[in-house]
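User: Please predict the structure of the protein below. I'd like the answer in structure-token form so I can feed it into my own downstream comparison script.

Assistant: Understood. Taking the following sequence of 233 residues as input:
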Amino acid sequence: MFFRFMQKAKKILLFLFAAQLIYIILLKWVDPPITITQLASWIRGEGLKRDYVSFNDISVHAVLAVVASEDQLFPDHNGFDVKSIKKAMDTNAKKTKRLRGASTISQQVAKNVFLWQGRSWLRKGLEAYFTFMIEAVWGKRRILEVYLNVAEMGTGVFGIEAAAQKYFRKPAKSLTRTESAKIAASLPNPKKYTVNPASAYITKRYPWVMRQMDNLRDDPDIARLLKKPEKKE
């Protein structure tokens, strides 16, 4: 009986592994149908505004702004910013009330697309696995494109297109440098920090984001990342 149970369990695990691997590969080209976070937002009655757009239909200012705000080493790391993780661990060991995060854009995509919100060791372990996989399968530009489409940018607002329409009544490809910086400035807590009209936190933070954008713009790795892929005829 135990042997038969183990055989069935092994088959189920192999099936689940194959299914998630196929799903990861598929998402290299296909947008995620829905995420757990989006579904939870809809169930809670917070709404679900989203409109996936391609990398070519996103303002270069918006792309640069989220990198400047969230993960300035994004083009260079393998999905994990080891120095920031160590710094966060040291800070959290001293302070118990406010926890410092160190998630890269890749880690945030892994969490937002495949997992649920939370701080359990199980979720963090799965996050590390999916981060490794999307770095290996998708590549940097696709990771960034998915991030800009699934990241929560307000209560019930997911992705840069929905955020651009809600806050500035325009498509994401038309966002200005300042507008992009304001949206990016909200990302640490988009439900708490209002983009437009700008909360006190956004008013204080978005000029810093703009300065970081200026610092990063001429970096060769950043420049390659910002370059729009040529459209296939």
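That's the full token string. Residues 88-93, 96-101 have pLDDT under 50 and may be disordered.
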